[in-house]
Design goal:
Length: 158
């Protein structure tokens, strides 16, 4: 799917693909901070720990998804309230996480109405230095299967 937002220049668009479904989590240190673990999507966008994403809340009205434009540079959330750094956390530091700014998340769903006992999931789309988030349909889930690593289960019928 090609993604084009008003936040992009007139001739600019990028191809994105749905990469994963991830559950929204609340940061233990701050109940108002929402985190998404999106290792596959962040890597599919070509970024790693040390990079950042700038969320574009207006993109929800424009394209129906919350877009986040990536950079290899560390961002400063104090000077730009919609920029968040990629966090390298989890067991053995193998998980890439991203905080979704409260105001940006509010464009997708009402953060105050989230049931943290059963938090919702988001579908995460990725393109070149771009992530896009949409609320997941609880009946559907994106499953990534690495076909090359699976054994051939077919038998030779001779």
């Amino acid at each position: 799917m090609a993604l084009k937002s008003q936040s992009m220049s007139a001739n600019e668009s990028t191809d994105v693909r749905e990469v994963q479904t991830a559950r929204l989590r609340r940061d233990k240190a701050s109940e108002n901070t929402v985190i998404v673990s999106a290792t596959k999507a962040i890597r599919a966008a070509g970024l790693e720990d040390g990079g950042s994403f700038r969320f574009a809340p207006g993109s929800v009205d424009d394209i129906g998804m919350l877009a986040a434009i990536g950079s290899e540079e560390t961002g400063d959330g104090r000077s730009d309230r919609f920029t968040r750094n990629i966090r390298h956390e989890g067991q053995d530091g193998g998980t890439l996480r991203l905080v979704i700014p409260h105001e940006a998340l509010a464009e997708l769903t009402d953060p105050e109405s989230i049931d943290w006992e059963d938090p919702p999931e988001v579908n995460v789309w990725a393109g070149d230095r771009l992530l896009a988030f949409e609320m997941a349909d609880p009946e559907k889930r994106t499953v990534a299967i690495d076909i090359d690593s699976q054994e051939d289960d077919t038998e030779d019928e001779s």
